[in-house]
């Protein structure tokens, strides 16, 4: 287990967004978190990435308690994420966005950077090359010098995933990466996510596209009204009566 | 859309600035000297406001700290100016660190108010502390800047000295902007949540930007005291803080050369044209800021482009909104 969520609850001014949920993510798998709108999927991601504080409960990452860690500490530990509504740095180019994603892996400080000695130049060159490699992998190298904000929506998502990958995460969390994509783009995205998984990155995926979820995930956790309703392999989930009830209301 | 490379602009500017004293009368050099000194403070402010998106309305205090440190060390303790100059830089940076730590917990209007408050505290403090720092009259008799016995006393000498220091700091700032730290600054200015999720320690980097801006202001203050040969409280009031913020906005957020050009032009306005209307300075600055935001929201840098694309305008709106957000 790379990530363990134990008895996690979150209360938003009287509203229970999560009620004592527990589940784990096995290393090297693609795990999907599904459920209807308002089930609390995004809240789980916000808490794991340190942006929102849990009301109660514990999150263990590689046996280490990260419940109270700050977002940048969590990223530094190896958990990267993308956002439901794309949050690229709008005044930067695609390449600069990805280069910013490598912040935790580089070391040059303020004092040294100002003088730009060979060490800093070398690191900067490495950051640039590594970022190009990532863009290459995501298939958007030709967009490197575009302003991030001027790209079509689907490609902005790919840039955001590239930026997350740039921190070389062990766990990558994607919040509805296929939202707003057409069928063709979804196809490419699904393939990319599987490739990321094959490279040894554990993936936690929130997604509404059930077809895509069934196709690429090894394990599925179903949330409804802030509780875990079911979890299992795609085959098991597809037949689970409780899940069918959640989705079809039967 | 190709932009001239920053190196080319630097070399060209250095050449032009190098020959200016041969052409212009000494009278005009006076404005350029002052302009260079204020530009140093603007550079720091540009890193803080233009790149990191954090405002400070207390920058005059850091200039004041630099000026007073130099004045005290040279007149009361007879230290060499060059040493006092470096100590001024260190002390103003250190005080920026002490002040920035609590103050940067606030955002937008509150940050503006907190830094404004710090500026006022400094002003009241120097006015009321007679024995050591001279109260309302300040400290006179600050010697000219000198390095190993060579004194910079004529306008031409001071011009070369100040512009050389400014130029060095400009290169230093450009390097920061084009580094991992600069990218982190820019990330913070547009989206703090995304920045922190990308592994950037937002609080720490804001503090770093604040300390840089304080240190630069301290350098400017130190040079100002040797230039004016005094350090007086009324030179370091809120109107100077606003003047520096104004220069950065008119120069364009995220445009280092722009803020220098704007500072020089505004210095000329302030010093030559408007000096008789000192009491209306706040009003005049207010009008300039409004006009700038309406007609040149991107600053004076990209004037040659006639149209601003809609996403750029949207981005600018977002930046200003973030600067003044709780």
Give the tags.
heterodimer; A: about 250 residues; alpha/beta; B: about 325 residues; mainly alpha; two-stranded antiparallel sheet; 14 helices
Short description:
Chain A has helices at about 40-50, 70-75, 95-100, 110-115, 120-140, 155-165, 185-200, 210-215, 235-240, 240-250; strands at about 5-10, 15-25, 30-35, 55-60, 65, 80, 170-175, 200-205, 220-225, 225-230. Chain A has about 250 residues and is an alpha/beta fold.
Description of the molecule:
- The complex is a heterodimer of chains A (250) and B (326).
- With 250 residues, chain A is an alpha/beta fold.
- Chain A is 40% helix and 24% strand.
- Chain A has helices at residues 41-48, 71-77, 94-101, 110-115, 118-138, 153-166, 183-198, 210-216, 234-239, 241-248; strands at residues 3-12, 15-25, 30-34, 56-61, 64-65, 79-81, 171-175, 202-206, 219-224, 227-232.
- In chain A, a hairpin with a 2-residue loop joins strand 4 and strand 5.
- Chain A starts with a strand and ends with a helix.
- The mean pLDDT of chain A is 94.
- With 326 residues, chain B is mainly alpha-helical.
- Chain B has one domain (6-325): ABC transporter involved in vitamin B12 uptake, BtuC (Orthogonal Bundle).
- Chain B is built from 14 helices and two strands.
- In chain B, strands 1-2 form a two-stranded antiparallel sheet.
- In chain B, helix 1 (6-23) packs antiparallel against helix 7 (155-177).
- Chain B is globular, with a radius of gyration of 19 Å.
- The mean pLDDT of chain B is 89.
- The A-B interface holds A 49-51, 70-72, 75-76, 80-81, 83, 87-92, 96, 99-104, 106, 108-110, 113-116, 120, 123-124, 127, 147, 149-150, 163, 167 and B 172-173, 175-176, 178-184, 186-187, 189-191, 193-202, 208, 212, 254, 311, 314-315, 318-319.
